[in-house]
Amino acid sequence: MQGPLEGAAFLGGSPVGEKLAQQGYVEEEFILSGTATSYTIEGDFPEDGSASASLADSAAYTTRLLVRRPADADKFNGTVVVEWLNVSAGTDGSPVYSYTHRQLLRDGYAWVGVSAQKVGIEGMEGMPAYMPPLKKANPERYGALVHPGDAFSFDIFSQAGRAVRGDSGVAIPGLKPSHVIAAGESQSAFHMVTYVNAIDPLAKVYDAALIQARGGSSAPLDGIRMDRASVEFFSNPVRIREDVRIPVLTVQSETDVLQLLSVISRQADTDRIRLLEIAGAAHADTYLLGAAAQDHPDIAPEKLAELVAPSANVMGMQLGKPVNAGLQQHYIMQAAVVQLDKWMREGTPPPIAERLALTEDGKGFVLDDNGNVRGGIRSPWVDAPTAVLSGLAQEGPGFARLFGSTEPFDAAKLKALYPGGKAEYLQHFTKALDSAISNGFILSADRDEILAVASASFK
């Protein structure tokens, strides 16, 4: 282990407006080197997730760990969230951190981002220059990094977890955790499913797993890039194994359920498995795509409302409809961290959530009278709506299919729903919000901010 390194670390899309130092946090970057092992299983990955992996090859690696922790050790709550950084955009990204950073910093968590995959270090063809991998972003800082391929990414992630824990003689200064959560979103979630099913029974590093936006299948152990995997591969269901060693909390949007086919891997909740499906949420929304990078505890409600407002212009693309502008995924993810932490520490599972309602053929959602989906985790954004919020794809290039859509109600529709104007709207919104808090899916600590943003958003 080398570090902390001097100078600024690079992380694409990471929240920069959070004022770490003002919240009593420090950011440090470390270089982790070692020899990683790849794994193999006989035959196809089993549908029930009960893979029996064995050691295969070994190779040297050098990667980086990005750490954000309380500067005062006495303010550290003992839990570290270790995120498998997402590389779908050709650079390291931290979507789990983006969705949850307000809660992590509010309650004294530490967060560690792991450059587990080769693309984050070396890049891939066809990605725009504004999304550089580490070696192109700062050749002097990251030029010595070496990644032998994604077949070794699972063991690299295990070794990163051991470094966080200090179990292997390698420790990160300032961190003495009692519990460590593994986390990953989207492509990283595919890898997390494989990790908890096949690698965790051998490695036994993490105390819990937070999986966000997974598909129906899981990542291959041989390191084939997810964008090169076959359609047949993605259509093969893989559930979380029933005998999973650690608590696993999976959080899904509408996009993930139908477009990424997680519906084919739905399973019953157990004392070790929980599945949350969020009504009205998309794989990515205006919070993740822009607001998260500027969100911080002192942000004015009017500013946050402006940042998450519906927009059809994102990432340099002009789309046919505004992308999904619901805030529910941000706040539900913050509650998910707290729920999982309690589950891991005390053995108390999160509440059981209703699944999103599907049509008889399983290919569409059942909608309410306002056009929003029925079932799933309810929130004021769908139960006191001002728009149709969907996670289903709209036409457009690249990642546009993951952004869902927002169709704001016109003045006549709003008048019919809320004849008393803003005051009546806020009454309905508050009732729905308090129900979500009572059900355990939104934190009471976020209540005042949510109401203030709702008031600022209503036109």
Tell me about this structure.
Helices cover 29% and strands 17% of the residues. By secondary structure, it is an alpha/beta fold. α14 packs antiparallel against α15. It starts with 24 loop residues before the first strand and ends with a helix. The mean pLDDT is 94.
Please tag this protein with its features.
29% helix; globular; 459 residues; eight-stranded mixed sheet; 12 strands; alpha/beta; 15 helices; two-stranded antiparallel ribbon; 17% strand
Query: How is the main sheet built?
Result: 8 strands, mixed
Question: First CA to last CA: what distance?
Answer: 53 Å
**Assembly state (oligomeric):** single chain
Strand percentage, roughly? 15-25%
How would you classify the helix and strand content by structural class?
alpha/beta
